[in-house]
Design a protein that fits this description.
22% of the residues lie in helices and 34% in strands. It is an alpha+beta fold. The chain has a single domain, classed as Ubiquitin-like (UB roll) (Roll). A five-stranded mixed β-sheet has the order 2-1-5-3-4, with helices on one face. The chain is elongated, with a radius of gyration of 16 Å. The model has no long low-confidence stretch (mean pLDDT 91).
């Protein structure tokens, strides 16, 4: 058995919980075990595919979708600059 931490974060708050999984469990299996769905996840800050095999102590981070396209936001800031 392995223990992994599932993290979901929002501005100024977060949720964290530990779950136990069988050896060889994947990111997708971890999300299913805790009842979460996600379009994008990371393990210790690095993007991870659902097929990635987890090891004991991994931190699976559920990523929020972007609220703005970074390129468009930069263009708007540049257009406002003197």
């Amino acid at each position: 058995m392995i223990r992994v931490e599932i993290i979901r974060a929002w501005p100024r708050r977060h949720e964290s919980r530990w779950i136990e999984l069988p050896d060889g469990a994947t990111v997708d299996q971890a999300l299913a075990a805790c009842g979460e769905e996600a379009d994008a996840v990371a393990v210790f800050g690095e993007r991870a595919a659902g097929e990635r095999v987890l090891v004991d102590g991994d931190r699976v981070e559920i990523l929020r979708p972007l609220i703005a396209d970074p390129k468009d936001a930069r263009r708007r800031r540049a257009a406002r600059a003197p």
